Amino acid sequence: MNGTPIRGDFRSDTLTVASHAMREAMATAEVGDDVYGEDPTVNRLQEHVAGLTGKEAALFLNSGTQSNLSAVLAHCQRGDEFIIGREYHIFLNEAAGAAAFGGASPWPVEVDSNGSLAPDDVRAAVRESDQHHPVSRLLCLENTVNGCVQPVELVDKLAATGRDCGLAVHLDGARLFNAAVACGVDITAFLDHVDTVSLCLSKGLGAPAGTVLAGDRATIDRAFRARKMLGGGMRQVGHLAAAGLHALEHNIARLADDHARAERVAEGLRAIDALSLTQDTNMVWVTPPAEHHDDLVAHLESEGLLGIFWKPTMRFVTHLDVDDAQVESLVDSFTRFFDSRN
């Protein structure tokens, strides 16, 4: 960036900064020692999420990775296997924690262009009972997958398939609220056959940190112990829990604004013949011609516009701190770059 002021940061919806009202809620939160279960704000957050998900209990953790790992450890013993989509976050982006810390082995299954698993593929991946095989114990789902919504009907079918095969079912719902808003449903619509669900507070909802894991009481009790082993026993963490409560109470419905802005980016970029792209919820994936990729990145960065500039496909994410003017700046910058190449 060479000191260029940032005019629009589209790298991730994790980049949001707590609003003044959220900071006020954090500053005035009533706190206690959460390791002893005595932080009233944490307890209120956990009870709130249990109610939102229709589950018996919930547990506040410091990150989505810790939440997913605690869930896998709560469901699996050493030597067990969990079935998961090949493109899913737990498999690709959480440092193989389930294998490293829990001795649980992932068995990846191919997904389609929408990030979706097929129920028949899940069923085929379940191991037969044999001394040579690990025990299939858990099915890990995800919603959204790279911004792509997994429909309610599909999640139901996959979870029902898993349960029919004797598997527990965990849903990495880091952006489940995005899926729910996109589908016009409550998040409980996705959770009828799911045992545990992980909900991130620090992505589109705008909290500075935190994820909540919800499920039945026995599984959450096991996850509570796993959290402690993973160094997640926090003390007066009600200040962070207050941010999460504020996010849940104020920032769910407005996710539709992020989706609309991502659609506006996609609409503008589709007018550029050189680009191929996909968009769902708050993510836009753009593939420029390979010969223009590096020059395009340099151009965008020179104008203070940031994305995740992977090759061959780059990603742009709208969020709480992206406004209409920034969206128009991004589209305009792309347009001028490719106009200059014609």
Which architecture of the largest domain per CATH?
3-Layer(aba) Sandwich
Approximately how much beta-strand content do the residues carry? 15-25%
CATH homologous superfamily placement of the largest domain: Type I PLP-dependent aspartate aminotransferase-like (Major domain)
Number of helices in the DSSP assignment: 13
CATH classification class of the largest domain: Alpha Beta
Number of DSSP E strands = 12
| Computed Rg | 21 Å
CATH fold-level name of the largest domain? Aspartate Aminotransferase, domain 2
- The helix/strand order is EHHEHEHHEHEHEHEEHHHEEHEEH
Which strand order do you get reading across the main beta sheet? 2-8-7-6-5-3-4
Q: What is the overall silhouette?
A: globular
Low-confidence stretches: none
What is the arithmetic mean of pLDDT?
96
Structural class: alpha/beta
* Overall number of domains: 2
What does this protein look like?
By secondary structure, this protein is α/β, with parallel strands linked by helices. The chain folds into two domains: 8-14 and 254-339, Alpha-Beta Complex (Aspartate Aminotransferase, domain 1), CATH 3.90.1150; 31-250, Type I PLP-dependent aspartate aminotransferase-like (Major domain) (Aspartate Aminotransferase, domain 2), CATH 3.40.640.10. The protein is built from 13 helices and twelve strands. It has a seven-stranded mixed β-sheet with strand order 2-8-7-6-5-3-4, with helices on both faces. Strands 9-10-12 form a three-stranded antiparallel β-sheet, covered by helices on one side. It has a two-stranded parallel sheet with strand order 1-11. The longest helix has 16 residues, at 255-270. The two termini are 26 Å apart. The model has no long low-confidence stretch (mean pLDDT 96).
